[in-house]
Amino acid sequence: MSFWEHRSVLVTGCTGFLGGWLTDELVRRRADVVGLVRDGVPLAPFFQSGLDHRISIVRGCVEDYHALTRILSEYEIDTVFHLAAQAIVGVAFRNPMATFDTNIRGTWTALEACRSYGRVSRVVVASSDKAYGDQDRLPYTEDHPLRGTHPYEVSKSCADLIAITYHKTYGLPVAVTRCGNLFGPGDLNFSRIVPGTIRSALRKERPIIRSDGSLVRDYVFVKDIVSAYLILAESMEDPSIHGLAYNFGTGTPISVLDLVRTILRLAGSATIDPIVLNEAKDEIKRQYVSSELASRVLGWAPGASMEERLGETIHWYREYVFS
Q: Which residue from 122, 101, 100 is spatially nearest to 174, judged by alpha carbons?
């Protein structure tokens, strides 16, 4: 029997970009998955692929303590992947209250429900490299302080600290993930740079860069991060893994302008020039992580180069969205 076969798993945020891919892989590994779903978005790949018919769905919000305790108890949950969040930086800037409510209160509510239930063997909490904020020393390592300054960054810094608090204070078996910028098939939020540029390239339109193009980020393939989550959760059989955060990235940061040009080239639109608006405000100039700890302790590494993963992603959009 595999590690995940018949293991009862709760995934908050299961309909999201990462949540959908993680849920799909758990189903493939024959886990008994329960998904907490706030909104039904019919065009989301989670619903288009029929995943909603292959897991147990509970309607509700991650801020609802009583809903969470009921799920944990009635489904006898063993493992929790807490992914539910407001994940768009621009939305957080425009609507900080809702972002803080979901990302911060939602995290302590989920963790408190796990604590009161008392039978969860592992909780993996999704943080972000954004939790580190703006720092002089790069790449970020797990011992960097968390000092986000803008709403989304602060929400992740707070959620991250709360997760570690629940381990240090109450012994809850928690581990935290801090990932670079995710990309890959199934991301239908075209305000993000990767799917937005792919859409423009396939339509033979000029892609739009909101910044000046010089911002440097680490872009990591969503399926590689699914692998990271599962490896981390499996490794939590060892209690020494608990109470720590782990960075997951490629180690090959790239500027926004270079990323856009790479996508245009791979999509066969290399002659198209992007439109550089230079309108982005309050953006961190350089932001990327070291995954040395995840490599050494968990044995995790990306499965392929960024160019290979971008090629796979472009193929998906060409076949499933713009065919």
A: 122
pLDDT at 52: 94
Amino acid at 91: V
24 lies in a domain?
A: yes
Domain of 27, CATH number, reads 3.40.50.720
Is residue 270 situated within a structural domain?
no
Is residue 298 domain-resident? yes
Q: Which of 117, 132, 140, 152 is catalytic?
A: 152
Cα angle 157, 160, 163 (rounded to 5 degrees) comes to 150
The model's pTM: 0.96
Would strands 122-126 and 174-179 be described as parallel, antiparallel, or unpaired?
Answer: parallel
13 in the Ramachandran plot: left (φ > 0), alpha (ψ -120 to 50) or beta? left
pLDDT, tens digit (0-9, with 9 covering 90-100), for 6-50: 999 999 999 999 999 999 999 999 999 999 998 877 778 899 899
Three-class DSSP category at 305: coil
Domain that holds residue 63: 8-183+221-251+287-303
Residue 189 lies in a domain: no
Write out pLDDT tens, residues 104-142.
999 999 999 999 999 999 999 999 999 999 999 999 999
Amino acid (1-letter code) at residue 9: V
Share the mean pLDDT of the chain. 95
SS3 59: strand
Count how many domains the chain has.
Answer: 1
Give CA separation, 162 vs 83, 223, 250, in Å.
15, 27, 27
* Tokens (6 digits) for 177: 């993930």
- Catalytic residue status for 317: no
Angstrom distance (rounded) from CA 212 to CA 256: 9
Residue 323 has pLDDT above 80, yes or no: no
